[in-house]
Amino acid sequence: MAKKAKKLAGIDRRGENIWRIRYVNNGKRHTETITGTQEHAISRRDVLRAEIRQGNWTAPTGTTVAEWAATWTEQNLKRGVSTRSYERQKSIVDRHIVPALGRIPLQKLSAVRINELYRELESGGLHPSTIHYVHVVLGSCLKTAVKLGSIARNPITNASPPKVNAQSGGQTFNQSELDKVLRAFEGDALFPIMALAAGTGARINELLALEWAAIDWNSKTLRINAALKPTRDGLERGTPKTERSRRTVRLDNGLLALLRNERDRQEAEQRTLRGMGEDIVTLRNLLPDGALLFPASPIDPTKPRRHGPISKAFSKRAASLGFVGRRFHDLRHTHATLLLQAGVPVAAVSARLGHANAAVTLGIYSHSTTDAEAAAAQVAGSLLSNVLKGG
Predict the structure, then answer these.
(1) Which of these, 32, 70, 99, 271, has the minimum number of CB atoms within 10 Å of its CB?
(2) What per-residue confidence (pLDDT) applies to 117?
């Protein structure tokens, strides 16, 4: 005969591995039913008592993960991020989080179940970086639930998403290779975009959002304060990737001359489109307010162009020169790497790239700072070469 379970304070056995926990908070009686062993019931009872003592307890509700996720995406997420980011995160919620966790009561979601979700996604072939993004989105969703008092603690704190490889700066060109690639675009309509990317390190979605008003010709600076973001309804000119991505970049005389020529060319296009004739060469400011540096068409200089054809054209031309697999974004990596190798301080490079802080730059371009440190060691050694023999 099975040994009868010992009667425990605040716990009643309701069936095979079914337990009802009774507890009181502020004079009100509450119950919670769980499935598991007697040890599970004791542990849950102790947790509830500790939460009440610490003031972290929340009243039980029937809200499921799916219901809370729907509330969060529409009332919190939608108001706090760009349209593109909202669509990406909502897709993660709809495709990966709700199907697996949606029916679970929000207050009963555990780190164990979240880890099971990660294993399920991994065994289903999802890339670790995507699973990590699931972790980030779910964590943000649950963090808001804690903040609003819907749950006492965030269960994702003790969950363990798969590790992803450290950020990489991607492939870079050395100076002679960069010269070779850029010369291949000379005379091409895309040349100013390529040159500005290599000369500023700006992202392509930032370049395609630039307006002529962003250039201060006197101070020789370019103000980057917007970025293009694809949405289901088309391209949207919105805020940059992060707050630090709003930045002002100083331009050298060569880039300024290139941009002046591009501006003159677009002004000439407008004269032709308006039938003014080439003899009216002194007429300026034909471009409308909000005119872009690199519009989709001269007919509407405020209409942005898509980055896909530009990226494909770059990769195809680079491959024809022997640089197979190179991307337009590698111009940004090249800009940063060459600056660091030239001894430009990390903080200055970080500000120019629009990184959140110098630590991000160090993490991505550690190979460049390692090379610089090796060069610094050689210089430091030469300082003592007259004193230390065999140095």
Answers:
(1) 99
(2) 94
